[in-house]
């Protein structure tokens, strides 16, 4: 009797594992189909298609290094011991944009004000323009990004820095920036806003992630799959501040 019970239990576990594998295989097949459909839609709108599978990530996956100051236009400022400041785009921006085809760097010696246009990301014929988090004069730029713009996606806060600046009004500029806990709370608000104005209105492209309406995961590189109208909306709502 005991032997029969053990065998029955083993068979049940095997059947459960088999059912899970079948369900997972079907889910992956749907994800690939969604990616293909999204790429087709993007092509029809004149956007270079991205043939990578649709993936998602959670809010906790966003990187917010300690000691780094964040501008509301999604650039960051890291104050060096030399007194100079390194600047780049934050993790939220690079994840939202997706593919980078080209980065336009600022010229060395250019004087810039906090909130002034400073560098841009190109994806096909579209451009995302970023603004400086501090006042000052550009002292150097990351030339590696000209040939390998994808470096920003691997780590936007170290190797993916865009330029360094000699600050001229840092004490006042910092008052308008976010750091540590304040940065985390602000980013959470931005993520919620992103879901509301971009993801929720485009879930017909991503039914696999319809749970986003209930606080679910975010589609990685969403702007790759959307049209120019949504791209312009992202620039207006998240970068032009």
UniProtKB/TrEMBL annotation:
Key word Transmembrane present: yes
Gene Ontology biological process: glycine decarboxylation via glycine cleavage system; protein lipoylation
InterPro entries cross-referenced by the UniProt entry: GCV_H (IPR002930), GCV_H/Fam206 (IPR033753), Single_hybrid_motif (IPR011053)
SUPFAM superfamilies associated with the record: Single hybrid motif
One GO CC annotation: glycine cleavage complex
Domain of life: Bacteria
Pfam families: GCV_H (PF01597)
Protein keywords: Lipoyl, Membrane, Transmembrane, Transmembrane helix
Transmembrane segments annotated in the record for this chain: 6-23
Keyword Transmembrane helix in record: yes
PANTHER family named in the record: GLYCINE CLEAVAGE SYSTEM H PROTEIN, GLYCINE CLEAVAGE SYSTEM H PROTEIN-RELATED
Protein's name in the database: Glycine cleavage H-protein
The organism of origin for this protein: Candidatus Gottesmanbacteria bacterium GW2011_GWC2_39_8
